Amino acid sequence: MNSQDASRRRAYQLRLTAEYPRNFFKHPATHLLARSEVECGTAANNFMDDSMSDSQKTVAIVDDDPEMRSSLATLLGAVGYRAETYDSAETFLICASSCKASCLVIDINLGDITGVELAHQLSADGLKWPIIFMSGHDDAAIKNQVSAVGPVAFLHKPFRGNDLIDAIKKAIQ
User: Fold this and answer.
1) pLDDT value for 165
2) What pLDDT is attached to residue 87?
3) Which domain holds residue 72?
4) Which single residue of 42, 88, 106, 171 has CA 20 to 30 Å from 94?
5) Does residue 103 contact residue 132 with C-beta atoms inside 8 Å?
6) d(C-alpha 43, C-alpha 41), whole Å
7) Omega before 21 cis (within 30°)?
8) Which residues of the chain have pLDDT under 70?
9) Residue 5 belongs to domain with CATH number
């Protein structure tokens, strides 16, 4: 690499660090972002409305994968949302009555209780949130179960960061 290329690269890095929170690119959440989102500067710009209340900015994430929970929480934090993370449907059910989230992001395959079963249990308990489901499995039976719940969105992993943010914005309107 010649010195001109090195200078361009350093200028590019400085521009990125000015646009994104510290350590944004070192965290696993960046694997959810398409390279074009990061390079174009769209991943962290203009996602939040400053008039939103704290509860409108809170998103509950229910996923049994600790890396996915951490990645999503970091992504949401980078664009101004507060994330509450739960490692299972059972854990979320214990805390559900006091949860102040404006919407839920739920993995389908959680273990003993699936994401769809969690949604049905919440509904039976009289607790209503807009729900965004996510799954790494592209299965017709799962899609039918999910559509019966009436989610805001169903995201197939891996998904673009912007797709999640757009779904959250739709959920909290």
Assistant:
1) 97
2) 96
3) 1-173
4) 171
5) yes
6) 6
7) no
8) 1-56
9) 3.40.50.2300
